[in-house]
Amino acid sequence: MLISCLELFGGIFLAIGLLSRLTALALTVNMIMAYVTADREALHSIFSDPDKFYAAAPYTFLIASLIVLIFGSGKISLDALLKRMFAPPEVKNCG
Predict the structure, then answer these.
(1) N or C: which end of the chain has fewer CB within 10 A?
(2) C-alpha 18: how far from chain center
(3) CA nearest 22: which of 58, 57, 60, 68?
């Protein structure tokens, strides 16, 4: 139940860019565990037969969550909008 809620709401949060890095971290751990439990054979063949690793179901979601985890949600996201709305204005020094 917990994993299905994580995947449902985590996917929604990633799509709109809300709490993106925290969500991406949780989804990355989830996809790694999916490899360990469900696609162990693909995980063991990462170096001997990489095509099997790339073709496994969790691969696309793992890479997507890693990209968001590393680079963040971007300028067109709810996180960036909230930051612009609620962040204090920057003070520029003239001198």
Answers:
(1) C
(2) 11
(3) 68
Distances in Å between the Cα of 40 and the Cα atoms of 7, 11, 14, 26, 56 are 20, 24, 26, 20, 10
CA atoms of 46 and 70, how far apart (whole Å)? 22
Distance CA 40, CA 46 (A): 10
CA distances from 84 to 13, 59, 70, 72 (A): 18, 34, 21, 15
Report pLDDT for 13.
Answer: 95
- The model's pTM is 0.84
Q: What is the mean pLDDT of residues 6-30?
A: 95
